[in-house]
Amine oxidase
Amino acid sequence: MPTGRGEAGPALRGGALGRRGRALPAEPEPEPEQEPEARGGMETTGPGGSGVAGSYDVVVVGGGISGLSAAKLLSESGLSVVVLEARNRVGGRTFTIRNKHVGYVDVGGAYVGPTQNRILRLAKELGIETYKVNIDGYAIHYRAGKSRHFVGIRPSTWNPFVYLDYNNFWRTLDKFGKEIPLEAPWDAPHAEEWDKMTMKELINKTCWTKAGKEFATLFVNVNVTSEPHEVSALWFLWYVRQCGGTSRIFSVTNGGQGKYVISAIPPILTTKIHYNPELPPKRNQLIQRMPMGSVIKCMMYYKEAFWEKKGCSAALFIEDEECPIGITMDDTKPDGSFPAIMGFILTRKAVKLASLTKEERKKKICESYAKAMGMEEALHPVHYEEKNWTMEQYSGGCYTAYFPPGIMYSYGRIIRQPVDRIYFAGTETATQWSGYMEGAVQAGERAAREILHRMGKISENEIWMPEPESKDVPSRPFTTTFWERNLPSAPGLLCLLGNTVFFTSVAAAGLFAYKKGLLIRN
């Protein structure tokens, strides 16, 4: 899953929200005429399903955050639940590594922030420690062999036309996003039109300068680990919208039988499950049309945080095809131990550089950091960790699945629709912070409540429960300036200047002709 961007939120220490345990023998099934007793048990099983037999109220497929959130809520509601996980660990697209070189490091989903209230609540319930990420100092935007320092969440530029492109791109995303319903993006007024369009086409329509188009491409790469030509404009507009806008965004066989099933794995992986009876045609077609993004998460450790001494936050935005990393941030522990820079190798670069050895990737990353930061110390790390999510057969990639053009409008509305007694969770089915850990919790708890409603335990209006705002990490509204709201686009400015020159020239010519007596005077 993606990390929290926009306002720098606290890092979530601890990774998975549960632990793998050996399944206990199943209790006897109650007689058919009786209501099942509230056993309130939750069990997990890894590869082989050791110890799992008998019948459960609910079988959850997938032990990631979404599946565990569903299982937790159902278990607390008195149902017997078993979680089936193909790996020998739980956590899914979150994964914490611990060793003497790093202490602990989250090589999957790691960051949470304001408005991500469900994952914040769950972390607090489970006693998972959070801490604020260091954002003190200047950030660096590296492009065309030059580094520019800036402060804030958006790079600055000396070129007024590039600035107009930046501003118009973000403004357009937010403006179009407001037209899209969070729960039903396929019902937006321009849904069909936008779904036929790729983000590359929208970028080309919105941005005029090469620099503007390239930064917009990086914006797409960073947020959904996919290329603009691969993703639907409708889906990306919705994705940004359900994360709170551009500023806020910058995560059954060989087991038991159950009365209900929750599928909490990425859509594309459900094609590996054999269904009897078969899935409905549209569901079967949808899950074959939602590929996963590509990313390698990289942590470079140093003897000391040399960037801090020079006033740098270690936040880098790198636009250079020769540099593996696209975006970075400081990953030093809150007590100052294990100084590190975390970076992402994104989309096309992740695929290209996967053929290199780990040591070769490390060398290229260090060289790119030294070049972008202008600091020779970056060439001398003491340790390197990485996680190539494109190699994970039980995730298929990261951060999230995406909708190519033409899919969301035609198939999107069935992504959460149950199939008989099979219900669907997973962060891709969320309506807020889809693709993030927050979305995983929302989706898992929603699927659990759908089952509770079907069993008659809760009313229908309790399925979609609003989440109170976190008191520990309250959100603050983003404000835009008068100029950000009203500046023209680069083509708009050129058109305005052209019209101004034209009418000024006509007026001057008319005045000249009038004074020379070339015009008839009354």
Q: What stands out?
A: Residues 1-10, 12-39, 251-256 have pLDDT under 50 and may be disordered. The longest strand covers residues 312-319.
